[in-house]
Amino acid sequence: MGKSRWLIWAIIACVLASSSARELKLFKHKMGHESDYNHTLATILVEYASAVYVTDMTQLFTWTCSRCNGLIKEFEIIELVVDIQHCLQSFVGVAKDLNAIVIAFRGTQEHSIMNWIEDLYWKQLDLNYPGMSDAMVHRGFYYAYHNTTLRPAILNAIKRAKECYGDIPIMVTGHSMGGAMAAFCGIDLKVNHEARNVQVMTFGQPRIGNAVFASYYSKLVPNTIRVTNEHDIVPHLPPYYPYFPQKTYHHFPREVWLYNIGLGSLVYNIEKVCDGSGEDPSCSRSVTGTSISDHLVYYGVALMSGEPGTCRIVMDPPVVDYGTTDLGGNFILSRNPATPVIKLNTESDTGGKNV
């Protein structure tokens, strides 16, 4: 009797394994292109996502801040954009080690993150993405990229970089709200500017559109990774309602979930590559998203400004010569690619200008 029971269970296990294999094969065939996760690249790009939070424009523009030169070598900043009106910041440059243009977007400042998170609980899909039938997105995230000083400055910097370095790959990154803007930048480059080699990697990114938009996005920008961390609250927002698949927000693939297992001093760091649905129930959705601290540190790297003030920045007078300012007080620091950046004394006693 015991042998018969084991035989039955063995047959059932074989049938289930065979069935799962067929489903996986069909799923991969349906998805087509898939993005490969690269741990080393992730730990490099998270440094750029951290550096864009720096509020000292002199140190950031000259790439001498503690998050810049000490961590990432041979990076040439081409454009640094600060939208004072909307408290947004981004930079474009060329990374020699990656042989790529890197674009980084700053996320929400940590002092206001609780108010921002509370708003996200109530945000509704309210904007039709141009040219994509039934694709709806978050108006605020869409406008933060498309309707501020960031987009035209970034596109201009990319054009100048390509004129100097050729048609090298473009890597777009950002944390939190910066991740949302990075995603919109990636699809903009592919759809509206026919960029051939665009890679997007975000950290702690919120949902930005519905399932239809997620489907379009995964086809147009397949080389995309969304890294989530432990119980980070932001990837759970705006809320996902599985019973209303066409009306609710929906992540696009591919997620990589970072979490720890172990007990006491024996702790193992796990980097789980999730399925291609964008909403893998065995990844970050398997836990409650309740942690702010898990949102502010990825791969051991701090993703916050660490400075007081809503949109406080510091800039030395000589750097102003590299900038232009509009009537709203928004400014762009710009330099020609492959030309030496100015050498400035960046010590705290230089009399930097608070803006």
TrEMBL record:
Q: Which domain of life is it from?
A: Eukaryota
Family matches, as CDD domains: Lipase_3 (cd00519)
Which spans are transmembrane here?
A: none
GO process terms (BP): lipid metabolic process
Give GO terms: molecular function aspect only. Answer: hydrolase activity
InterPro entries from the UniProt entry: AB_hydrolase_fold (IPR029058), Fungal_lipase-type (IPR002921), Sec_MonoDiacylglyc_Lipase (IPR051218)
* The keyword Signal is assigned to this record: yes
Where does the secretion signal sit in this chain?
1-21
- Which is a Pfam family this sequence falls into? Lipase_3
Q: Where is the Fungal lipase-type domain?
A: 102-239
Q: Which UniProt keywords apply?
A: Hydrolase, Signal
Q: What is this protein called?
A: Fungal lipase-type domain-containing protein
